[in-house]
Amino acid sequence: MEFAFKNAQVVTADDSFLGSVLVRDGKIVAVDRGGSVGEDLAGDVLMPGVIDLHTDNLEKHFFPRPNIDWNPISAAVTHDGCCLSVGVTTVFDSLSIGTFNPSVARNHDNLPRLANGLLAARDAGMLKADHRLHWRCETPADDLPARLEQLASHPLTSLFSLMDHTPGQRQYRNIEKHLANWSANGMSVQDIDERLAGIRDRQGRNAANNRRLVADLAKSRGIPLASHDDEDVEHVDEAADLGATVSEFPVTIEAARRAKERGMVVVMGGPNLMRGGSYSGNVPASELADAGLLDAFASDYVPRSLIECAFALTAAPFGWSLARAVAVVTEAPARAAQLTDRGTITTGARADLVRVNTRGGLPVVRGVWVEGQRAA
């Protein structure tokens, strides 16, 4: 199958220009300035498909309301359509190992159900985007080793991350604010003290050993490793020494700077930029962008935030070139995930493509192709 686009604002790894792109058998075979053959895109942007390294969005469709679970295959199909509608063609569905609560999606039974539902939907040809699993490993958890043994061998496994949500450090370094949230949810002072003591006890017993366990597992399987919510130089150095190549959502500029020095890909949450800051009070993504410390975005909990981030960076106060801005949601995430076949519009790459124009200052996705097939 062969087709072409013309009169498109083609975004390559380092430039953007009015040109044409030829696709054959799911791959890009030619990229040219000018060109008069193919579907006329009327000057719309033609960019690579967006790559999302971390989205919790699958859980939203599995649990559309508290304690109401949905068919996991159906949830995967709905989630897939949501991702494609905002230009995301490669999806790392993030599921947490070690944060278990019977009232939410992250319990012992639902993790395999979600993962296997995703696989079943893919194998049945019901998904159009390329879905992979990102296992978020809560290192203080007592049962992380056993759960990893069960889940890490899943055929969609493509990324591991080291996490530690113990209050008083990393994402929740503002412990007063965190404990106030517990209190606002109805916990008594005694309950808060007991819960906090239990969490800290688990961290002391498990975190260091579990971090090494996850790192060794990732290395043995040749799967990229990310470190989540690093707070300081020591956190970054420990993660890098364990083999982490991605710094996901660093919470201070010092941690982001050290991650760059250690050659890690620095990834921030798209909602952080679009909302004007971190909901936890951590370093704003805009500050890292200004300092030259930002490489990539992941959607975290809003898939559409990625396409909005790319176009927001081209406007004031940032003023990035279109090519540089698009790279933070395409080329850089591909590099972080060690995917060498996508993320750029170049000869030989997968024809994962997105057509975009802007209306009222917001990007509007007008077409999506995955491996040369129209997907949205």
From TrEMBL:
Gene3D superfamilies: Metal-dependent hydrolases, Urease, subunit C, domain 1
Keywords assigned: Hydrolase
EC number: 3.6.1.63
A Pfam family the protein falls into: Amidohydro_3
Sequence ranges assigned to domain Amidohydrolase in this UniProt record: 192-357
Source taxon at top rank: Bacteria
Class of this enzyme: hydrolase
A molecular function GO annotation: hydrolase activity
Protein name: Alpha-D-ribose 1-methylphosphonate 5-triphosphate diphosphatase
Organism encoding this protein: Phenylobacterium ferrooxidans
Organism placement in taxonomy: Bacteria, Pseudomonadati, Pseudomonadota, Alphaproteobacteria, Caulobacterales
